[in-house]
Amino acid sequence: SENSLESLISIGNICRSPIAEAVFRKLVTDENLEHKWRTDSAAVSDWNVGRSPDSRALSCLRNHGIETAHKARQITKEDFQTFDHILCMDESNLRDLNRKSNQVKDCKAKIELLGTYDPQKQLIIEDPYYGNEKDFETVYEQCLRCCKAFLEKYH
Q: Domains in the chain, please, with CATH?
């Protein structure tokens, strides 16, 4: 559609989803498609609202020449009504999002795992919070593969 919309979601909105959001935004900008996409990320929970992404997520993005000014927010009822796609990172996100969407009248969003689009078939993007820099790099690479494939499908 002319105004495709996209939202990237994970539990706390400080590690995986800000990486995915920033990666997707850069891909869209590089392809000169930013007028067609609204990209955002949000959390299922309210744990980290207002916080900047994890410093390791920021440094991972910077290593790839990407900046983000994202502040964590919680997903809203309006998100389900305005976004075409809500992409999440793992099964527990998916369950929570499906449960929340059932409480929303006229939910328009298609809710699915971002990993569904991975050409390497890594369905789950694991939370790197308790890991190290290498785990953040893995998340970045997965997000990049998935976002590219997603964009190719819907562009």
A: 6-154 (3.40.50.2300)
